[in-house]
Request: fold
Amino acid sequence: MNGVALPWNLNDPVGSTVPPRAYRSPVRQDAALRTRTALLDAAETAFAANGYTRVRIADVARTAGVAVNTVYTSVGGKPELVKAIVDRYVDHAVVQAALAHVNDSPSAEQLVADLVAGVRSSYEVTLQPASIVIDAARDDPTLSAVRDAMTTPFQDRLRRVAARWIALSGSPATEDAVFDRFWFFLGYDAWNTLTSFDWSWDERERWTARQLSSALEELRSGR
Reply:
């Protein structure tokens, strides 16, 4: 046995060097989850209504019905609240499925319709938290990485769709040119502007599909 490292001390009849198994009460875990959810709901509502800089942790705590210290121990300060708000949308089923069917679009025209519809369905869930992150990153540089981690995969996906549109349409346009038009009409700023008009989601989708189709047709025809 010399030179063999053992996971516990054989001379100790109770194996005191083995860490005791932590007990996690299901009731306490459920209560902690409910508290965290209430905090994130309160923070998201406050950030969306008042902007990142105007929101105080005390405001979030009051809305959630907890002590200020509970916010910090459960989630953290304002940057951590923003990160946690984004995290809970990352694996949302609607977001995951939003652009999946674009790969099967049989024509360039149908691809545009499917793309706009997919972005619309995703934004119905994510536009508010996305806007919160963008606003927060302007005032808190530590959140720039969170904003980029949210934006870059979306832009990369649009670039792949741009390449597919070129293949389907036979357009001589560059991928960058198509992407620029995609981002102009489908990026966060565009849909936040449409939201400020108080248009319905159907109106936003129809208008965007028409305008994007027109812009792409000009690109395809070289006008």
About this structure: The mean pLDDT is 89.
